[in-house]
Each structure stands twice: as structure tokens, then as C-alpha cells.
Amino acid sequence: MYSIRVDIERNRLYVTLVGFFSVAEMKKCGDETIDATKRLRRGYDVITDITQFKPGTAAVAEDVERVQVHFRRSGARQGVRIVGSNVLSGMQFRRTGTSAEYNSVNVRSLEEAEKLLNEL
């Protein structure tokens, strides 16, 4: 399951990923996420909540990286991943983010993510 929300006023994209994703589900989520970024201005921020995400297969990770590459190329300023205590998912997203050259950091809560972005 996933949810995507755009905050045009704050120029932020919010994505929440829950559970285990098949390749088809991750591709659908990725496509919808990319479409959502088109409603934002260059310099937008991305907050991804992966506290309940289950690390996926290599093919799922490739699709995550595809979206992260889009973020970088489309002008995202900063990415923030809410990982809570979900260390494995945080590691998987950090690894794909590094490959995609996508600027993102891991935090433990939405409040911490918002604070970090508000101070930039």
C-alpha cells in the first residue's frame, strides 16, 4: 500500500510506503510519484515515510532508484526518509539514493523531517 500527497504551498511531495511491494506495485507507485512531481516547482522537497516498508527484491530496488533519478533530474532540492526503527529499509533506500546521486537523509519522525526542511 502507498499514498502520495502534494503540498503545493510548501512545494513538498509526501510519499508513504507500507508493506512488501511486488515489482508491478512499485512501478505503479513510482509512475504516480513521478506524475505528482509535475505539480511542483523546481526546488521541491520529498518526504518519504518508509517506517512500515518491507525491503524488496533487487527489481523493486531498481524501480526505487528510477524514481530517485527522476527526483534529481527534475530539480528536487532535498529528500528526507522517515525510517523510524526500520533500519533495513533505510539502508536499501540510502544505497539506491547514492547510486541515483539523489540528495536524501534518514530521520526518525515526520516532525524531524519537517524541521530539517524548514531550516534549509
Q: Please report the distance between the alpha carbons of the first and last residues.
A: 31 Å
Overall shape: it is globular
Strand order of the largest sheet: 1-2-3-4-5
Low-pLDDT parts are: none
Q: Mean pLDDT across all residues, rounded?
A: 88
The structural class is alpha/beta
SSE topology string: EEHEHEHEH
Count of helical segments? 4
Major beta-sheet overview:
5 strands, mixed
Provide the gyration radius in Å.
13 Å
Which bin fits the share of residues in helices? 40-55%
Q: How much strand content do the residues show? A: 25-35%
* Total number of beta strands: 5
Write up what this structure looks like.
This protein has helices at 23-37, 58-73, 87-100, 110-118, and strands at residues 2-7, 12-19, 45-53, 78-82, 104-107. It has a five-stranded mixed beta sheet, sandwiched between helices. With 120 residues, it is of the alpha/beta class. Helix 3 links the parallel strand 4 and strand 5 (104-107). The N and C termini lie far apart (31 Å). It contains four helices and five strands, in the order E-E-H-E-H-E-H-E-H.
